[in-house]
Each structure stands twice: as structure tokens, then as C-alpha cells.
Amino acid sequence: MKQTVLWRFLLAASLTALLAIATSAVAQFGSHEDEVKVDVSSYPADVQNGYKVFANKCSECHSLTSSLKQSRSPEGWTEEVHRMQAMASSHINNNEADLITKFLVYDEAHRKAVARETASAAAGSSPEEAGKQAFESYGCSSCHSVAGAGNTSAPLDGIGNKRAAEELKKLIASPPSGSTMPAMDVPAKDLNNLVAYLLTLK
Amino acid sequence: MISRSHLISFFCAVGAFLTVLFPRQASAVPQYARRYGITCYACHTIPPVLNEQGYMFQKLGHHLPPALEVSKPVERILDLVRKEREWTVANNASFAVSDFNYQAQKNTQQGQGSNSTSAIQVGSWNAYFGGWIPDTNFFYYSEFDIVTNGQTNPNMPNAHIGYVGGTAKSSWYAIVGRQHLEVSEGTRAAQIYSLLPNAPLIFENTGPTNFIFDQSPVGAAAGYTWASSKYRNILSVNAKVTDGDNADGSEILGASSKNGKDIWADADWWYAPESGVSFITYQGKKDQIQNSGLANQFTYNARIRREGAFANYMIGRDKVDLLGGFLHGNDDWQDPATQAPGTYLTNGGFGEADYYIWRGLALAARYDRLRQDVTGGVHPTNLEQWQVGAEKAFTPMGNIVGRIAAGNSHGIDPVAFTGSATRTFEADIQFNF
Questions:
Q1: B4-112+119-394+410-432 — its CATH code?
Q2: What would the 3-class secondary structure string for chain A be?
Q3: Which residues of A touch B65 (CB under 8 A)?
Q4: Rounded mean pLDDT of B46-54?
Q5: Do A88 and B56 touch (CB under 8 A)?
Q6: pLDDT at B202
Q7: ipTM
């Protein structure tokens, strides 16, 4: 009798584990839904060249998605590319790094800026709703999660209780050195909206 | 005229029909890629061959090596641990690491003619459970092989727990438990896994003392690893003390009074990009039973020694990898007929060239030679083996890999002095999920 219970438990546990693994294997290897496409045909020639190097070198260890979704200031991108050069088994020379940075900075100021404008125009008029939209369009969710959605390694649930508006503003506008939070150029309006949204997370 | 897409669908069909791996060929551990959202290429040239990042990943207790920038502070292991993703079953376990293969062999035995065999089979099917204990520096790793070499033969070549301390730049680890040879030893040329289906003879050959280098004994290991900024240089020294395996790598079981003790040590130097040198030594003392079951059965306690040097040199940026290794063996040996003490000496080496055409596609060729000399033997004999093959990954992540390889091995038994030759053709497809 006891044995049957144990077997049933083991069977149920392994089936659950298999299901969990199968689901995430599909997510890991199968889905390309959130892949971002970039049309560089209107970009200057050297930036197009930079895109080619970026697409080749930066896709070796991970997809291009987070670079194409997340936001960085020009210094932030320079720093990120330097950091990637310093990973084990990364073979990106300084010349390639410059080309890649050029593309990322240009893409930030053009395609991403336009996309953020469009998204914020489409969002509701309340700062909280616009902030929620900005949270997506700045790619915050590729590092943070809210209510389990996004990257769960740095959840922001309850941040509204933890930090005051001024603190949050400072954190996002100029993250402390040594922090994993990247340097982003968030204009004042978007910053206020983001903070309004974060304050609702209680 | 067969189009490329037809060829690919043929491979997939073959894969779907069969299910699972090559002889003693390990695979990637896909839950790690899953955990960090990275591709297999982050840690492998083509799975299962490890690059520097994969090597560092092991040395840092299964944590992703962070960037080592010239002017930035170096992260402690505990900082890495704090940034780890949430612990889930899915990013700690994988059950569906499998290989389906087709093998055709022609064996020729001196004085007995030849025979041919071929089989389509589930070559291997493994499950892995590995990760870290949340918010601590402890890590664990286990490998459960359900099918090996086409045979259902449940076996656990890895089951250990470890602790890692220090910083990403200067780290140390200690491990206890069962560890397969791959765990602590060697830069790429010294790794038991290659782009080709069969590992070099010096790792896999079983000599007349029954000793095989490729084993997974139980014991304790410790090591220290230092990396310069941007991982331009990585230096590592490792030592392992183990017990409880017979010379052939099988377990000495409960009631047996046999002895088996081993000490392993290695020193590795990687210099970027992707080149390296390793020195390895092994000293063992094992009870040997000769003429088992016969009236003149006897046991002796043989000393077994191996010393080797391995190196690889990567030309261009991940383009052509030249690998080579040499292993010298000096074992005690007692003639089964006369019981006269003597030695069994081996000198073996291999040279391999891997050409990475582009990411996920490579050609490989290797030549192996093992010279064996037994006291009382008429003369030293040679075993030789060559293999050529091609490998291709079928997904952008690199987790489905197809391979074809042809090989030939021939040689003379150092004791019986009979010759034999084997020709093989293999095609396989490996799934890492």
C-alpha cells in the first residue's frame, strides 16, 4: 500500500518535471516570436556595415533580441560592447567593437526612439499607463519581471513600497556605478511616467 | 539530384525514427543554456566539445564566467550566485539528451576472415541534473546514462557535490563524489570528447593490464584557477584522489577484497583565442586477477602510471584547430603463463585537425597510434586508427547536431600477436533538450 503511494508520487513528480522541461525547451529552442527585425536599408553605409558585424558576432552566445530591445545611452552601449569583449571565448577585436557600437548607438537614436514615440502616443493618457508602455518599449522586462512576467531574476514587485519617487528617478537616470542596471538616456517625460508606473507596484 | 533540404529532411526522418548517442560520447547539458538564455555555442565549439567559456563554467562551479575587464573590479563567486536566475526544475535538469545512430562495421581477424555488421539504434540516452544550491557556493552535478553504446545499461558516471570560492579571476573548488574523467582534466586537446565519434586510443584502449584511462571513479578533487583580464590566459591546477574502481573502470563491488587506488593531477594553460596546453599524470595501484576461474588463477597488485602532454592551437578566428597529444604508460605486468614479473609499456599519440567552416559546421580528421610493448613479447606492436568526419548543427541554438564519420583501425595484439582490422561508417543525430 505504502509502495503504491510512493510510486504514484514518483510518477507524478517525474511527469511534472518532464512537462516543465518540455515547455521550457520549446520556449528555449522553438519560439522566435519575440525576435526583433531591423531594416537597415535606410541607414548610412558604415552603420549598415556595423549591423553586419553585430549580427554575426553578437549572435554567437545569445540571440540579438536583448540588444535590439533594450535601451542604453551612447556610453552605455560602448560599455556593454567592451563588457562583451571581455567574456571568455569572445573574439571581438577593437575595430569590430567600434563598428558594432556605431550601429547600436545609431539604431537607438533612430529605430528605437521612433518605436518608443509611437508606443507612448498609443498609450492611454494617464502617466501610469504610459509608464507601463515605456517599461516594455525600453526593454526593462528583459531584465525585470512584474507579477512573474519578464525576467524573474530581478523582480520589481512591491518596488512602490520600497522606494520613493525621487529615489527611483535617480536609480533609473543614473544607476550607481558597479550596478547591473545599465546607463540609459531616458527623457524626463518617459522617466516620470516610468516612475509613476513603478509606484503602482505595491 | 538531391537538394539540400531533402538531405536535411532525410536526416530528421532518420532521427525521428530512431532516438538517441554515439559510443561513450557525452553531450551538451542543455539546461545550462536554458538557464541563461544563451546558445550552445557560448560554451561549445560544436556540442559536446568545450571552448574556454565552457571550461571556465566548470571551474567556477557551474556558474557563467563574468566579463573580466581591465579596469573593473572582479566579481566574487558569491556575487555571481546572487545574480543567478530563479531555481526551477527546468533550468536544473534535462531528460532528453539522446543520439540515434547508424553504424556499419567490417571486422577482419587474422586467420578468421571477416564479418560485417550494421545497426540503426538508439546510441545513447542520458539525463542530467546539475546546478547550484540557491544563495550558496555549493553546486552539484549528476549524469544518468540510460542507454550507452546502443545498450540499455543504467549507469551514473557523474554524481558529485562541490564548493567554489574566491573570485572569477582567482577561484578554487573542491568536489566529492563520482566524477567522470572530463570533470577536472584538460584543455581542449586533453578532453575525452572530440568532434569525431571515437575518442583517441590513448583514452579508450584497454591494454593487457585491463586498465582504461576513461573511467569515473569515486573520490575527492580540488583545484585552483586563475584568469587574466578578458581571459587572455587561464591557468589551472587540479588534483584528484579516488578509490574503488577496477583497472577497467568498472566498480569494485561490495564483497570484493580487491584494491584500487588512484591519484590524478593536471595543469592546464589556455591562451586566447582558444589554444591550450595540458599536462596530465595518473598513478594507480590495482589488484589484478589473471587467468580468472582457471586452476592457475593469481592476483597481483600492479602499479599503473600515465604521463601525458596535450596541446591545441587555433589558427585564425575559430577557424582551424590543430590538436595533438601524447601519453606514456608504464604498468607492472605479470605473464599469465609463467607469472614472471615484467612491464607493459605504451607510447601513444594522436594528431587532429578540425576545420570550422562556419558556426555549426565543421570537418575533422584524426590519426592515432599506440605502441605497446610487453615484457616477454616478441616485439613491440602498434595499433593505428584514422577517422574523418563532418558535423553540422541544425538549429540556430546548436542543440541538434548531425554527424557522419568513417574510420579504420588496425593493429596487432601485444600479447597474442594476432592482427585485426576494423572499418567503420557512422551517421548519427544528437538531440539535446
A1: 2.40.160.10
A2: CHHHHHHHHHHHHHHHHHHHHHHHHHHHHHCCCCCCCCCCCCCCHHHHHHHHHHHHHCCCCCCCHHHHHCCCCHHHHHHHHHHHHCCCCCCCCHHHHHHHHHHHHHHHHHHHHHHHHHHHHHCCCCHHHHHHHHHHHCCHHHCEEECCEECCCEECCCHHHHCCHHHHHHHHHCCCCCCCCCCCCCCHHHHHHHHHHHHCCC
A3: 87-88
A4: 92
A5: yes
A6: 93
A7: 0.85
